[in-house]
Amino acid sequence: MQRIAIFIITILLLVACNGDRFSTSPMKEHRGHANVKGGVYLEKSHNQFKTASTSLEIDKEKFIDRMVSKHGFNRQQLRNVLAQANKLDWVINLMDKQAPKATSPTAPNGAWIRYKSKFITPSNLSSGVEFWNQYQKELQRAYNEYGVPPEIIVGIIGVETGWGRVMGKTKIIDALSTLAFYYPRRAQYFSDELEDFLVMCRDEGVDPFDLSGSFAGAMGYGQFMPSAFRRHAVDFNHDGHIDLWDPVDAIGSVASYFKSYGWQRGKKVAVMADGQALSLDTGFSTKYSIETLAKAGLKPQSSLDGHTQVSLLRLDMGDNYQFWYGLPNFYVITRYNHSTHYAMAVWQLGLAVKDAR
């Protein structure tokens, strides 16, 4: 995805035991109509309009100008909508906590083992098997149409929301407007996401105040940001609407996302290496020839599908490091979240669920 930090995953998992899958998608439950002239459908009036500082009003007016000129929104209605959105100070605090650490551990400390254990658990595997069995036909259809295997889709949805158990309880319009207008460090990014969110609500005929997600504005089973919805989401159940809170649309949309980033049908994700290469840089964006890695002391445990250039991945196992050859499909998983741990967890969780069926 557009980068959603691993911190979000931790927050979701802490409350997962209290979450339930939506019995009805909020988009279906609250859908009105998509023919509101120049604006979004509103079921009702929400919060009282609030006054704001001059500088904030200037920022909002610039945003409104863009929405009017680019998408034909009604200026006054959009003013009223934004005036009803709440500023969430706690969202800003959580975003600040995501700042990258200045230093990395100099010796193995089990970071990968701890990360992996958040997802690959007996109860989680049971939930994953249940999801896979329930949507087996749709997962197979996604593979047939997009070339993305069921275990990858199941892994993504499992890591992101525990197969729909925890999709977030923050009003998306509150989160995005807070970050667009009160968080200068990433204001442009979240302004663009707010733009795409409002266009989505208008086109789908949904009240923007009725949709909840993560504190950064991610939505539905797969935690798509609004920009990902606009570019990659699909109506996979063919009901005339695109709804990421519907598991079938989510399955198709995740597959569509991966295909657009170059997923290679039938190809491997990564191959474990024998040996150690402690002097080499590692990470999903590194590039090495097979010969260079061989000279460093590494050897793949199985075929590399003919690839002559790979990334070098390193997992902290506690008492040593485990090295992997990262192949193009591994890199594609990191387009969802720019993290080696994340991509490896998605892949290994999906495989574990597959083996548990």
UniProtKB/TrEMBL annotation:
Q: What is the native source organism of this protein? A: Gilliamella intestini
One protein family per Pfam: SLT_2
Q: Name one GO molecular function term.
A: peptidoglycan lytic transglycosylase activity
Q: Name one GO biological process term.
A: peptidoglycan catabolic process
- Transglycosylase SLT domain location is 61-350
Q: Give the annotated active site.
A: E160
State the name under which the record lists this protein.
Answer: Membrane-bound lytic murein transglycosylase B
InterPro entries membership: Lysozyme-like_dom_sf, Lytic_transglycosylase_MltB, MltB-like, SLT_2
Q: Which SUPFAM superfamilies match?
A: Lysozyme-like (SSF53955)
UniProt-listed CDD domains: Slt35-like (cd13399)
